[in-house]
Amino acid sequence: MKLKILGVCGGGGVILHPAKGKLLGNIEPRAIYHTPGKAFWKANFGEIPLYKTLEEARKEEFKPNVIMGHPDCGSGSVLSYSRAKKLSTIEFNDSFITFHSAVTEYKPKFFLFENLTALFKNYPKERFKKLFKKYNLIMYSVPMDRFHNSQVHRKRLVVVGIRKDLSYTREDFKLPKMKNFKVKTSKTLIAGTENMGLEMGHYVEPLDQLITIYGGCKITLREIKTVWTTTLKHKSRYTAEGRKYTIAPGVYKNLPNKPPATARKQNRQFNHKGEMMSPRELARIQGVPDTFVLPINPNTVKRDLNKARVCITKCPPYEVGAWFYQCLRNLSPLIPNN
Known about the structure:
Elements: E1 5-8, E2 23-27, H1 39-45, E3 50-51, H2 54-57, E4 66-69, H3 78-84, H4 94-106, E5 110-116, H5 125-131, E6 135-143, E7 155-163, H6 186-189, E8 210-214, E9 217-220, H7 221-229, E10 237-239, E11 247-253, E12 269-270, H8 279-285, H9 301-313, H10 318-331
Parallel strand pairs: 1-2, 1-4, 2-3, 4-5, 11-12
Antiparallel strand pairs: 5-7, 6-7, 8-9, 10-11
């Protein structure tokens, strides 16, 4: 079987990049991943099409036999819960609807669906299974070191769908062996990035830049770095003052000799030197190779930095897509073409 892969809610393409040679295109309805002239997408995928809607993709006559994507998981996120004090359902989420509609319409032999493990807390697992009733589902709810990524605290839901007319099983999509895998420290992972520049997606924010480190508290990056390297030298969380909470939410520092914390899109995450983490440093933590381009224009640095951080962190680690693609490659000679 010749692999013909379609990304559906594949974000900026991190999960799709390992399968670039077999990629037909990506349907991405979320505006957050789009840049003027599709510059970000084209930097990594050239003329492989990026669509905004399923309707737009229908104009092509391709017939994918694999779909890969990670629909929006905000409904099950900690941030969503902290704001609404309850987990919202994914049922009416546009990206989830697009993913389900594409699977229903194209009837691929296999699909990869990635999301937060909290998905089933407010959306019954049995209802999810009924939506994909023509597929046997393999579900993994595991930390990302099981895919050989060093974010041991990043736990995700990974679902593989196998069309029921095929006789493949969990054994064909088993997780990588852990025997020879060694978790890397955050310092090791970002080693060498200090010698990179904008062309590699690395940018050290000016220390006189003022940011809101937590609600109502504005401070310069120089002051933050001083705190990280003195008072909180051996701490990973930032202390809040004059608030009901004692730890600033969403603010952390990666300790040099510890595994990296979960990479997030917010600009309040710092490396072991006390500096705001660059998109390239976050990419290293996410397992994304340096060959994956993070285009940052000197004239639009702030906008491009935000887009790059979103592209890199709102996706599964690179190793998840690479694992799935390798499983497919192992199976492809055995799968009938019809």
